[in-house]
Design goal:
Length: about 190
């Protein structure tokens, strides 16, 4: 299975996050999965790639050309294939098109946007790929709370909670990713409008 991992590019985050995502990458490779990711060499992107590479897994990196040209972030140098589109929008589309499932690890604005974009696409029945949030150290507790508040106030349908899994347990994360529930729905079950 090709798993797209979203996560931080920052080299300054706590080492505990790095260690857990490196282990996630190692486990992905041991389980026969390949990595699709944003091509960064630092932060949790680099951690996932190092873990995969350590156990011989395949890596597809996707990083916009301007990242190299403007030295935006370190590029992971051991990708089996590196695609360099022109824009961030193209980057996200290539990653989505090449993924069978998504794991969202802790990150910043870009990671939040990636999560909400794939969640919105799933809500609109444009894909039915598993989305798992790896909630290391409770990082995503506030986002989970915000989503539940939006449901309580009728901005989001409660059925949207079925579109992803949030967990800090790696075994539960892989169980969800590797054994997806066939959850074909119509848009009206997931979205008012």
């Amino acid at each position: 299975m090709r798993i797209c991992v979203f996560g931080a590019a920052s080299p300054t985050i706590d080492k505990d996050y790095i260690n857990k995502v490196e282990e996630l990458g190692r486990l992905m490779a041991k389980r026969g999965h390949s990595l699709v990711f944003g091509g960064g060499g630092n932060g949790l992107m680099g951690a996932a790639a190092r873990g995969i590479k350590e156990n011989g897994g395949y890596i597809l990196g996707v990083i916009p050309k301007f990242f190299r040209e403007q030295d935006v972030e370190v590029i992971y140098k051991e990708c089996d294939k590196l695609i360099e589109p022109d824009t961030m929008r193209e980057r996200k589309q290539i990653m989505e098109d090449n993924a069978d499932a998504f794991i969202v690890t802790p990150g910043g604005i870009g990671t939040f946007e990636e999560f909400f974009e794939i969640l919105t696409s799933k809500q609109l029945c444009q894909h039915n790929k598993p989305i798992a949030i790896y909630n290391i150290n409770g990082y995503y507790n506030d986002i989970e709370s915000a989503l539940k508040t939006a449901i309580d106030k009728n901005f989001i349908k409660e059925t949207c909670l079925d579109l992803y899994k949030i967990t800090d347990d790696v075994d539960a994360l892989f169980e969800y990713i590797e054994n997806p529930v066939e959850n074909i729905r119509i848009i009206k079950e997931l979205k008012d409008g």
